[in-house]
Specification:
Length: about 500
């Protein structure tokens, strides 16, 4: 027993925990003390073992070795239900709500307070209102969950955990699917939870965010614990060095120049989808990275989907590499050389049961064979080299995608669209969930693809990602393109363009 494990402040004592998967040691004798009523962050590269550790604490994964004590008592969880009865819940990115049921029904599913066999709807509503007041969330009790944005669904998950009286919540990359404003709101909620005595284990790749919100940070690398330290003793650089085993000088590689005579590879003229995007005109030249900024709901993802043929357009036309094209489906988009890295990898990106090879070659299949799913040597070789370019870990093509860590799944999505060598790559939040080291790799990859002549339309909510990579940045607001700024615009300029007049009024 370690010297601190008897301390009353320790909520969860993780001792020498081991988890093996075929071919990988996901956790190798990891020991961490999580103190009560603190925010304890887990950081590390993609595949370091963060989710595995979080899932073990929350009963979703059973360890192969080691011990876990909760409140000084040894526990042995074999399911999330076991963990719940010890007051522990997991909120992860893959939402586990029932889409057809309302907010209130999801929150109280399985714990419905009532008497004489009747569900007391009034009491449930009161209780839901109380929990919303406590957290500052506003949720409509009767809205079916399927109508809510991902960020709102996540709030329902949090309220659901609180309604069960949990004392510890594991958040696995909770802000990866949230907007900047929603992420800030969630930080407020987490602080409130902590101040009222709840313990939080927090997994994130946003290191500034981790330092702002956490009391302690554990750094994992290749399944080992590197160290646990108070957040106040860490900096972004010290965390990166701990995670990667090396420092990272600059996040963004220097921008390459676009030749002034570079041809236009994508031209959108007055592209409209009634009620969603209005009259959007833009150009992307070969070698150019054009950033798209805007608040959530400003129409960025919708524009991407219309250009890719995933949603219909009601007016306007598109030219690819100087030719007018009709793109009415993603298949036609791919045929004309337009690719999309979608925002939501689970919903639109991946076939989780399929192997890495199958997922990578799915879009580019036509260039290898027109006869269907025939695995050929050149196909595998091409996929292998793309997997290497995106630094897939482990670099095995025959693994089911479901067994990859979250960030590595995102790399497979990226790899798939590179495999069809598009003239235009539309990338919608391409680095969500990707660790800082791998991000840098993807940035370099985007740049070198651009240098080879690809045009890139880059949608990102991380303003520094836009200013760090883009040659020009267009700003969307309420479905329209409202301004165009140079790639070296500062954050304040971008924000005021994104918020528009109303923002100036509010802040004046
Ligand atoms: N169900 C599984 N089957 C096989 N291997 C798995 C499974 N789940 C995770 N792994 C492997 O265990 C290791 C740790 O994965 P884990 O998901 O914990 O990483 P992570 O730190 O959360 O990474 P990320 O930042 O990408 O989400 C990885 O090598 C991963 O491929
Ligand atoms: Mg993970």
């Amino acid at each position: 027993m370690g010297p601190q494990s008897g301390s009353p402040a320790t909520h969860v004592a993780i001792r020498d925990v081991v988890k093996r998967y075929p071919g990988v040691l996901a956790l190798d004798r990891v020991t961490v003390d999580v103190r009560r009523a603190t925010v304890h962050a887990l950081v590390g590269e993609n595949g370091a073992g963060k989710s595995t550790l979080g899932k073990i604490v929350a009963g979703a994964v059973v360890p192969d070795g080691g011990t876990i004590n909760v409140g000084g008592e040894p526990v042995s969880f074999h399911s999330p239900r076991d963990a719940l009865s010890s007051g522990i819940a997991l909120v992860h990115q893959e939402i586990s709500l029932v889409p057809g049921l309302s907010v209130v029904d999801n929150v109280f599913l399985g714990i419905e307070p009532g008497h004489a066999g009747f569900v007391d709807r009034q009491a449930q509503r009161r209780r839901l209102r109380g929990l919303c007041d406590e957290t500052g969330f506003s949720l409509e009790a009767d809205r079916p969950v399927r109508e809510l944005r991902l960020g709102e669904q996540q709030k329902v998950e949090i309220i659901r955990a609180l309604a069960r009286g949990v004392e510890l919540i594991v958040f696995d990359e909770p802000t990866a699917a949230l907007t900047r404003e929603e992420a800030e709101q969630l930080h407020g909620v987490i602080r409130t939870l902590r101040d009222r005595g709840t313990t939080v284990i927090y997994v994130s790749h946003f290191l500034e965010e981790v330092l702002a919100i956490a009391d302690a940070v554990s750094v994992l690398k290749d399944g080992h614990l590197v160290r646990t330290a108070p957040a106040a003793q860490e900096t972004v650089d010290s965390l990166i060095t701990g995670m990667l085993g090396r420092s990272l000088e600059a996040t963004f590689p220097p921008k390459r120049r676009v030749p002034p005579d570079a041809p236009v590879v994508l031209r959108a003229n007055n592209v409209t989808r009634r009620g969603v995007i209005e009259d959007v005109s833009l150009t992307v030249r070969a070698g150019e990275i054009v950033g798209v900024a805007g608040l959530v709901g400003s129409g960025r993802t919708e524009l991407a989907r219309v250009l890719f043929g995933a949603d219909p357009r009601s007016a306007g036309h598109v030219e690819v590499a100087g030719r007018a094209v009709r793109i009415r489906s993603p298949r036609e988009a791919v045929e004309h050389g337009v690719a999309l890295v979608p925002e939501d990898r689970k919903g639109q990106g991946l076939v989780l049961q399929g192997t890495v090879l199958e997922n990578i070659t799915m879009a580019g299949l036509n260039s290898f064979t027109r006869l269907g799913f025939i695995r050929t040597a050149p196909e595998a070789a091409a996929a292998g080299s793309i997997a290497e370019q995106v630094e897939l870990r482990p670099p095995q093509l025959d693994r089911p995608v479901a067994t990859l860590s979250g960030g590595n799944q995102q790399k497979v999505v990226f790899a798939r669209w590179l495999s069809c060598r598009p003239a235009v790559l539309i990338a919608d939040e391409p680095t969500r969930g990707v660790d800082v080291g791998a991000k840098r790799t993807l940035y370099e990859l985007l740049q070198s693809l651009a240098e080879e002549g690809m045009g890139v339309l880059l949608i990102s909510s991380e303003l520094e990602e836009l200013t760090g990579l883009a040659h020009r940045i267009v700003v969307m607001r309420q479905g329209r393109l409202v301004s165009e700024l140079p790639g070296d615009a500062d954050e304040a300029q971008l924000l005021s363009a994104a918020f528009g007049e109303s923002h100036r009024e509010v802040t004046a």
